[in-house]
Amino acid sequence: MYYIHAISSITHQNTFRIDNIIKELSPIKENSNLISPDYKEFIPGAALRRLSPVLRIGLTAAIDCKNKIGKKFDAISVGTALGCLRDTEKFLKTFHTSTSDFISPTSFIQSTHNTIAGQISLGLKNHAYNMTHTQNNLSFEMALIDAIMCINEGKINVLVGSADEKTPFLELLQPKIISKKYPLSTGGSFFSISKTKNKIGIIDVKTIFNSKNTELEIKDFLKKHKYETKDIDVILHSDSNIEIPKSCHFINFLKYSGLYYSASSFALHFAHDYLISKNKNSALIVNDICIDKVGLILIKSNEA
Amino acid sequence: MNNLRENLKEQIIEQLNLEDIKPEDITNEGDLFGDNGLGLDSIDALEFIVLLESKYNIKISDPQEGKKIFKSIDTLASYIEKNK
To answer: Are A47 and A56 in contact (CB under 8 A)?
Structure first.
């Protein structure tokens, strides 16, 4: 098991520095906004001015997690489906329209791969292994798999999380690229995980590309860990079309996170706080935000 | 020339996204770079090169020149006046 020791989420819900987010959550509405903390408490002004929302979220949540555990991270693993989309759009637009020999370097620098994990590394002055994973809706799960591999290799405290941001252009594209009908949102959730025992642990994570049947994938995944669906107290899903036993609580996390491709990290925060507040034992996160790509995360309480 | 200095201050604030700084906070002779000045850095120097070309059609061919040109609003305005 890989235990969760700190969580920090910045989303369209009141989730930042809240002991248990369950009582704060309500279905998000169209045109809701990101609930941002005062980033200046965490990031010097000179650095903050260059950071887009996704970088502000990532760095602030990372600093918050570090403050909570009071230790240095031995690895940083981040998932993002679309990365620094605002900077990428700005750079491409300028590149396309500018007649000048030079174009602004900042948006280019922040469009490059590993910007989020790299900025967290720079912001924390922590030059340990840092990696940004981009695998569409499975970006967070891939980051989590990497974090677990880091722990298996001997690293002690690993920061893992994901963040994505919406832009007006993405809202225009959304109906063409994704069938789920939820308001687009911006958000990120970060976790400090380690082998040291704590209340909630991650049993396993699995990603399935080209999935034909989500229900079968769930059964196989649970069977590997000697579980059946009826043993699971709560399934957090992404508007998934699956049949579940009546004993199991079934929650569509997209109603609360809004739609961003790495929102399964929000679901992990949700599931963590749900197990603690309801005194339940196990939770499964089913992420099939994109058709045929399924992410599964199984977590367990040590206290229920 | 004073108009040029005021325009430069506004353009710098916009280009470098200096959220908490107003034109009146920037003196004509104060350092733009380093901890004693506005705290600008090497990425900002690149942004200055882009700004000079896009707003004033001036190209800086030798990056070493930048250190002197970008020292303050006064040095920047003088360079623009001489080369535009």
So the answer is: no
